[in-house]
Amino acid sequence: MPLITLDNISLRFSEKVILDEINATIHKGDKIGLIGRNGEGKSTFLKVLAGIVAADDGDLKIQNSTRISYLEQQPPEDNDNTLFNIVAHGLGESGKIISKYHNALKDGNISESSQLQEQIESQDLWPYLHKIETVLNRFKLSADSSLSTLSGGWKRRVMLAKAIVQEPDILLLDEPTNHMDITAILDLEKMLKDFHGTLILISHDRSFVKGIVNKIFDLDRGNLSIFDCGYQDYLKRKENLLNSEELENARFNKKLAQEEAWIRQGIKARRTRNEGRVRALEAMRKQFFSKRKQQGNVKIHALEDERRVSKIVFEVKNIDFSMEELELVKHFSLLVLKGEKIGIIGGNGSGKSTLIKLLLGELLPSEGSIRRSKTIQLAYFDQMRESLDPNIKAMDFVSGGKDYIDINGKSKHVIGYLRQFLFTGKQAMAPIKMFSGGEKNRLMLAKILSQPANLLVLDEPTNDLDVETLELLEEMLVDYAGTLILISHDRTFLNNIVSSTIVMEGNAVIEQYSGGYDDYILQKNERLNDKAPKQSITKSKSKKSSQKLSYNDQQLLKSLPEKIEDLENEITMAQKMLSDPDFYQNPDAQNLTIKLSSMEKEIGQLYDKWSELDNG
Fold it and tell me: Is 230 annotated as a binding residue?
């Protein structure tokens, strides 16, 4: 017998159809991935199942005594409650008694703790205390810590622990991996694989979904399609369905064109026997505009700054950095060259965002030095969405209040630009507070990618994005010719994009590995097993190399980066002058052309010399 049966469930918000006569059954042991575009209503669907939102029509049948726990998308607001109290309250009144007892013991209130102990024994509540302590340990949570002291990822752990302690029959999870580090995600993945109840989850993390689910619910334009298979097989079946839909749309459009040609004949259409055909045409027109409203792909392009950028973007030498006596970076060196794509991973609080701020000059190292290219044009995506004003219109946020924005030297209406990111004209004029988490992220990307940049810094850009947008963002970043620095917990995203991975190993130790996340794990395991020499790559080896060089070569090695950058600036100026057709009337034009050729040859020789000395 199904735990939940949905019979013709319908739900509409104003003009938008969220659920259109949905039918489905959910059984014990199902582990369901709920897939769909941002704004399709995935979170609302979970709230219907949780009883938080009531459907407009249809019948939702839940088997008697079925326990349902729901973890919403947004982490809870800060409060000073302890983690023990929060998790205990998941057990209702019994949990509150246990919570009072724990607090009385902690405060040394013997009288109150004795009274509560009698109450616990009379109601046989000791197993509840064991449950709470077991779950806290499993999630690595400190019982007496305050929620307000935790990061977003740790807050989600707390709320997940509160849901798990109830031992639910059905667990509903809305983007559970948001703001979690990769280690926490792997722990959660194992926990959910071992969970014996029914699971329905929304997640943009493809590796996470692939490792857990055995069934897919695909929510698309109010309709629910059910795929009785894992994520990989779903992708293949979905592609076949989309190809079939494309053929059906072509047939539909051909039929519509024929009917429109017939209606233009006029006289025949007014005959009584043709009234049904006219009504059918009107229905086809409505269907056509409905399809146009819903279909289409996100088109994501990054604008690249046309100015010449130095080959060396960052040169980091032996830096240290501490914050409030906590050492985050120690003896770290790095060389970032133009066009490199670098991933950064590490635990929450390990210093990933701090490292970015050091590179960008927002923080200064206590020791060591960082050289930055003078031609950096930065576009920065902030995971906390700090620049989002909930009351501003989406179009004003992207354009700064103007009707037109400049894209690749061409003026484009901001509403037309936002359509490339699947925002309708109505959405473009709506305040940001009306958007889902994924739509807010997509809006942030629309703004950032409209700005010319030769350096993209993206801090957790995949949070809340639907899979389709995520894959298109991947394609754009792979094709992007500029330099990319990417903080992400999404293993598949990292594997598909980055050429090297910086890992915050803990205790202020930072290592760089070639390749993406899977490559890092392989190299890490090989190093631990002593099957191969350490394969972490550190491109800036000047200190080690200089010990093998003569004094003169050491001095030359130190001076080369500055010489190269000065020469690159001269080359840029020369190219700019020679790009002006009127300049060729100047008698110095020929000399400048010869000089430019000589400088380009010289800079090549300098790079060769730098590489030779740097490699010892």
Answer: no
Angstrom distances, CA of residue 411 to CA of 155, 186, 305, 403: 44, 46, 17, 10
348 is in an annotated binding site: yes
- pLDDT, one tens digit per residue, over 404-415 is 988 767 888 999
Q: Is 353 annotated as a binding residue?
A: yes
Query: How wide is the angle at C-alpha 223 spanned by C-alphas 221 and 224, nearest 5°?
Result: 130
For residues 227 and 216, is the Cβ–Cβ distance under 8 A?
yes
DSSP structural state of residue 550: -
Mode of pairing for the β-strands spanning 68-71 and 170-174: parallel
Q: Is 311 annotated as a binding residue?
A: no
Query: First vs last Cα of the chain: how many Å apart?
Result: 72
> At which residue do the structure tokens 């992708």 appear?
235
- The domains of the chain, with CATH numbers, are 1-67+169-222 (3.40.50.300), 72-167 (no CATH), 235-294 (no CATH), 312-540 (3.40.50.300), 544-614 (1.10.287.380)
Q: Is 506 annotated as a binding residue?
A: no
Could you tell me if 320 and 525 are in contact, meaning their C-beta atoms sit under 8 angstroms apart?
Answer: no
CA distance 219 to 22: 10
Other C-beta atoms within 10 Å of 458: how many? 24
Q: What is the tens place of the pLDDT at every residue in 53-71?
A: 999 999 999 999 999 999 8
CB atoms within 10 A of CB 282: 11
